[in-house]
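INFO batch 0412 | record 1 of 1 | parsing
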Amino acid sequence: MKRMIRSILAFILISTLLLGVACKKDKTQRDPDKDTKGLYSFSNTEYTGIANVGNHYYPRPLSLRFGAKDSVTAWSHLTLTQWRRGDVHGKITKVEEDAQGQTQVTILFDLPGDEQFNSPQVYTISADKSKITGGTSPIISMVDMKLFPKDAPSIVGTWEQPEHPEWFPDVNAIIFLNPSETIPGQTIYTQNGKVIYATGDQSLLHRVNYKQDGSRITFYGAHPTLSEIYDIPYYGVLSADGKTLYVDPYEFTAARITTTLSTFDWYGPKGKTPWLLRK
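INFO prediction complete | emitting tokens
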């Protein structure tokens, strides 16, 4: 009888230990019994700023969003052998927490056709969740990425380089107008102190629609010539404090920014991400 009791107790002890091992949670994971909104402590967050994305010659604007579970989207202009505008989807494959409370997140991005460049990217989220670093070129290597607020600041207002009106002339200065129920958000332009009017009608301002999705802005730069105005597709990402707009063209044919072939810094400093300041 005593032997049977000892066997039962041993079985209960072993079962309890196995159950404890099986139920052990990642330290970064939220309590799934109390919080069903996200699998990790960084779930449903967004980091914005600039990163080395693809084979571009200066850091590009980037918005990195974590979903509720293992989904990730990196929003930028990723150029390898193909152009990818907007979302590049990825999946979290591993999450670990180090002794300093930092979170190591491994992400594998979905890059069909560019598998030869693709490899798991390891990023580090700071203990206070205020910034994210890491990654390797040529995929996405973070340069300056900070936690974006849940309540995104509005893009409405004037954005410019007040001390350098000659820089980034397609978008310096650009005014984002407030949308209404009947009129979408639109941009108007002042370049080198002159208002840009619609071609052939000096009584109408040149206006082009824009769209804001949190930190992510899609809009157009304006390149006026003697005969017409070229509307050049641009995208931008708001900084975490809402005071800086990092911009980059989706189309380089007529865009007036510095390139690898530039011999002078006519359109801005070479090797530096174009940026505008909130007036």
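INFO post-check: The two ends are 85 Å apart (CA to CA).
INFO record closed
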